[in-house]
Amino acid sequence: MDKKICVITGANSGIGKAAAVQIALEGYFVIMTARSKERGEKALKEVRTLSKSDSVELMILDLSLKSSIKHFAETYRKKYDRLDVLIHNAAAFDVSQKEVKTTEEGIESIWATNHLGPVYLTELLMESLKQSKQGRIITVASKGLVLHPNLKVDLKDPEFKNGKFSVSKAYYQSKLAQVMYTYWIAEELKNTNITINCIRVTNVKIDLNRYPNLSALAKFAYSIKSKKSITPEAMAKTYTYLAVSETVRDITGKYFDENNQLVQSSKYSYDKDEIKRVKQLTETYF
Ligand SMILES: NC(=O)c1ccc[n+]([C@@H]2O[C@H](COP(=O)([O-])OP(=O)(O)OC[C@H]3O[C@@H](n4cnc5c(N)ncnc54)[C@H](OP(=O)(O)O)[C@@H]3O)[C@@H](O)[C@H]2O)c1
Question: Annotated catalytic, 172?
């Protein structure tokens, strides 16, 4: 394969799909992953049409399940001898979710999808990333974390087994853990050819049809909020920048906003002892 290879998780919708188009237009071979074959194939057609590129493929991957991630990574390694860019875009955040959902592997699904899944996937694709001249990993967090400056990862109860569940608490905890993951893995990879950076995604328009259980009030609130939203295509430009730009080839362990500017995460997220604790907690799952 002459072209650089980019894997984007959850690329059948929103920002991931827009990034697939942009990165294919940059001449990359793009592997879109989706957990649903039907939704994935529909998006694959759109991305191929919009990018006018045949170098776009679909692979099935459910980030909430270790078994699916293992199967994906094994299949990937058999087909491709290298990976240049890995974008951890997929995430679960359905504001109509009222109770804990547990995956068939017994893990709270937001923690599994948004944090554990990306960590496990990176680990299984690390050898492929090392085969790249300059491998890049991109994690995705949320500007909403700014509204929760004192948030911590609940080391004793990350899956809400005892505490009261709220979808927003579970989501922001998982995104905070991804920010901290970016910092610890950047440190571990500092003498390698691989960089990792995190994107602070701002308020981006979402397709409300994806959430049929939203109440009329929540739909109304979204319609107001979306007046200030940017498009998935605009946000995807930062994904593309971090994936392809030469300007960032040596930058690692940083946090970028939608204007490709460096931003700070919370004080807690930089604390080396806290990072170590979140890392140790994460490792108990593997
Ligand atoms: N939109 C915003 O305002 C906003 C703000 C802050 C951060 N973000 C972050 O930006 C990223 C993209 O969001 P978006 O707005 O583009 O959302 P989106 O349109 O809802 O896309 C999310 C993608 O993740 C996939 N996904 C969910 N659970 C999955 C699982 N278990 N396995 C595999 N794929 C799964 C979805 O697939 P299905 O179609 O199968 O559900 C979909 O393809 C996410 O990380 C999100 O947290 C978004």
Answer: no
